[in-house]
Design goal:
With about 525 residues, the protein is α/β, with parallel strands linked by helices. It has helices at about 5-30, 35-40, 45-50, 140-145, 170-195, 210-220, 240-255, 265-275, 280-285, 315-325, 355-365, 380-390, 400-405, 425-435, 470-475; strands at about 60-70, 95-100, 110-115, 125-130, 150-155, 205-210, 230-235, 410-415, 445-450, 465, 485-490, 495-500, 505-510, 520-525. Among the domains are: about 45-200, no CATH class; about 240-390, no CATH class. The protein is built from 15 helices and 14 strands.
Length: about 525
């Protein structure tokens, strides 16, 4: 008996068979694969934290891997932080704390820590910068990203203790301080993150202010692939030129006392500048909102007859002009680095005969390599030239950040108007970065000049505002921030809010509503 195959029945049977195989295959996946996914989504345990002690890393030794329950970890007594005021937080969340020592050179001794949330990790990583001359971890600044669910890392810049003497006779330690410690920390921290969570971080963000702001720019320049977003606050760049400005006021007062302005006149000068350039809201809150366009002239304070408490003598007027202008090269008359902006009179060193210590540390230890070098011998030609030769390319950054921006990196710059670093100088640098990047990358850089904010925080203005989250959202959406809500905190409570506007816009009072409420202001182009 011959049987002929019916083609229609055969095709139907094949379709049914394919569907049955698909069902069987799906069941197999559900049975075998799903438990693996479910297991990987479980939060890491204390034992998985401790197991990191056995992780093998190049040029690195893990010295501690300890798990802390919520509220169990207390910040070290001498913990530091330099990124401005932050709202109070509750108990420190549960996390895995990993300490490492890095030795990328024979003279390196870099201490770092990685903090890993044991639940609620948002899948991202934050690098936390240092402050001043480094020498310790900025524990206070590490709390904010941890609280928000980021894995994070910080380091001591390759030495322990304050001051710059670590660099004398130790060129490798100076390299660690300048850039190597941050990069090596980033590489090792990412490896720890990937091991702990079973996958790498989806994106990485750097945050720093002051020294940390320079570290931020160095990361963008030297290692453009380390971070996807960077927050650079008050970067004193070029560092040695900024430090020359910090020495300027005390040097003038010491060497030319005939023009000195007494400390009793500092507030008088500030009030005169405020009256000349403050808006109604600025006058009410105690700061100038737009120093860039302030027309205050020291000559307006010239005494009409004899010296008095409410005026300046002719030599004192010239001294004030010198302080605002900043130090000049005696050979050319060119300004080396501008002095603080009008409105930041407390930062002018008007009556000081001794500079703050960090610039002395830099010239003594980094430039002259001599613990006995005396700042009183500072030469605004020879000393600056020597600093440029020793440190250019080490802790200075030019305005070509295209490698970082071209790979999609986002850069947020900010500085307070009432600090020693003149906001006009950072605006100049911002414009150069944007010009070098070209129109297509203009939306990858933003600058925020913060009215009334001191160095990285403090002052009369609204100094508390989101930074990491702003850059994270910027990366996520591609939409550059044009306005950020800022607050003034007192005793952990918000007493005032105001919008921060992307340069060149400023927040202008609408004329109605409370001056303490951000809704009463709008960002307008100048």
């Amino acid at each position: 008996m011959n049987f002929r195959c019916n083609s229609g029945v055969n095709k139907s049977w094949m379709r049914v068979s394919e569907r049955m195989l698909g069902i069987v295959f799906a069941l197999l996946i559900a049975f075998f694969i799903k438990p693996v996914f479910a297991q990987s989504s479980n939060p890491p345990s204390a034992s998985s934290c401790q197991s990191l002690s056995n992780l093998s890393l190049s040029n690195a030794t893990i010295t501690m891997a300890q798990s802390y329950a919520s509220g169990e970890f207390n910040l070290p007594t001498a913990s530091q932080g330099g990124f401005g005021a932050q709202p109070e937080i509750g108990p420190i969340r549960a996390f895995c704390r990993v300490a490492l020592t890095l030795k990328p050179s024979s003279d390196s001794d870099i201490r770092m820590e990685v903090w890993l949330p044991t639940s609620g990790w948002n899948g991202k990583f934050v690098g936390v910068a240092n402050f001043g001359t480094g020498g310790s971890l900025q524990y206070q600044s590490m709390l904010d990203p941890l609280t928000k669910g980021y894995a994070l890392a910080a380091n001591d810049t390759g030495h322990q203790g304050s001051g710059g003497s670590f660099a004398i006779g130790h060129p490798e330690k100076l390299i660690d301080y300048a850039y190597r410690a941050d990069h090596e920390m980033t590489v090792q921290a990412k490896a720890v993150v990937a091991k702990f969570y079973g996958k790498p971080a989806s994106r990485s963000i750097w945050i720093g202010c002051s020294l940390g702001g320079v570290e931020a720019l160095i990361e963008a320049k030297r290692y453009p692939e380390d971070y996807d977003g960077i927050v650079a606050g008050a970067p004193p760049n070029p560092f040695p030129l900024f430090n020359a400005m910090q020495i300027w006021g005390a040097w003038l007062n010491l060497n030319h006392p005939e023009s000195n302005i007494p400390a009793s006149k500092v507030d008088m000068i500030h009030q005169a500048a405020l009256k000349a350039c403050g808006s109604p809201a600025g006058l009410a809150q105690g700061f100038i909102e737009d120093p860039e366009h302030c027309t205050f002239k020291p000559e307006s304070l010239l005494c009409k007859s004899a010296d008095a408490a409410d005026c300046l003598t002719a030599p004192q007027v010239e001294r004030l002009k010198q302080l605002y202008a900043g130090p000049t090269d005696p050979r050319t008359g060119k300004v080396i680095f501008p002095g603080p902006a009008v409105g930041a009179e407390n930062e002018l060193n008007i009556a000081s005969t001794k500079p703050v210590q960090p610039p002395v540390d830099l010239y003594q230890s980094f430039v002259y390599q001599d613990p006995n070098w005396d700042w009183k011998n500072f030469d605004f030609a020879a000393s600056v030239d020597k600093a440029k030769k020793a440190l250019d390319g080490l802790i200075t950054v030019d305005s070509d950040l295209n490698a970082f921006l071209n790979r999609g990196g986002k850069l947020m710059l900010y500085v307070g108007w009432t600090e020693g670093h003149n906001g006009n100088d950072l605006a100049r640098y911002y414009k150069e970065v944007v010009k070098n990047a070209g129109p297509a990358k203009a939306n990858s850089v933003r600058l925020f000049l913060v009215p009334g904010m001191n160095h990285c925080g403090g002052g009369m203005g609204c100094d508390t505002f989101e930074k990491i989250g702003v850059v994270d959202q910027w990366i996520e959406t591609g939409k550059a921030p044009e306005e950020i809500l800022s607050s003034k905190m007192k005793d952990g409570k918000t007493i005032r809010t105001r919008p921060l506007c992307a340069y060149p816009a400023i927040a202008k009072y609408k004329g109605t509503g409370s001056m303490d409420d951000a809704h009463s202001f709008e960002c307008v182009k100048r």
